Amino acid sequence: MREGPSNATIDWNPLGEVYYRKVEVYSMLWKDRVDLNKYVAAGGTYGGPIALVKKDAASGATNQKPVIYIFTAAGQEQAAFKWDGGKLIQMGWSSSEELICVSEDGAVFMYDMFGSYIKQFSFGNEVQRSYVLRAEVFASHFGTGVCVLSGDYQFFVINNVNEC
After folding, report:
1. Could you list the residue ranges that cross the membrane (predicted)?
2. Quick count: other Cβ atoms within 10 Å of Cβ 146?
């Protein structure tokens, strides 16, 4: 029996005026180990590495130092290290695949994709006194930057982390 045209596109989904279909290329190697509902994730651009930290540990809900895990885009663990900074506010990846971690006191730590420490810098005493409420790692034509919102509702921006 011959299939009709309606069966040929049964797995395609509308997105505005175009259609797409989702094709699984491979399954993540962590599939039985990692429940993403329990983690905060930061994915690198263009299929780069993925950093994970348990939500309760990152929020300071436990007394234990959180462990940051770094995986490949396929879910293979590359590294794991204990976070020694203060309360972890934000993680993100630079354009050169360096993990950027922002702590509540305004300290910024940088690690390579294998979890090796690169450097640390700070937003200064004003941010340290009022703490960081929110932080974002972003890309711009200057390089990879970090923006924080302090506890007294002021924004502080570093446009290029490589110049710190």
Report:
1. none
2. 24
Structure tokens at 139: 């890309």
The superfamily (CATH) of domain 30-163 is YVTN repeat-like/Quinoprotein amine dehydrogenase (2.130.10.10)
List the domain boundaries for the chain.
30-163
Q: How distant is the alpha carbon of residue 15 from its chain centre?
A: 27
CA atoms in the 13 A half-sphere facing the CB of 112: 4
d(CA 159, CA 147): 8
Residue 99 has φ and ψ, to the nearest 5°, of -80, 130
Residue linked to tokens 């950027």: 100
pLDDT per residue over 50-71, tens digit each?
Answer: 999 999 877 666 677 899 999 9
Please list the alpha-helical segments (H only) found in 23-101. Answer: 55-58
- What are the residues whose beta carbons fall under 8 Å from the beta carbon of 123, sequence distance 6 or more? 106, 107, 108, 132, 148, 150, 156, 158
Whether the model pTM is above 0.90:
no
CB 94 within 8 Å of CB 101: no
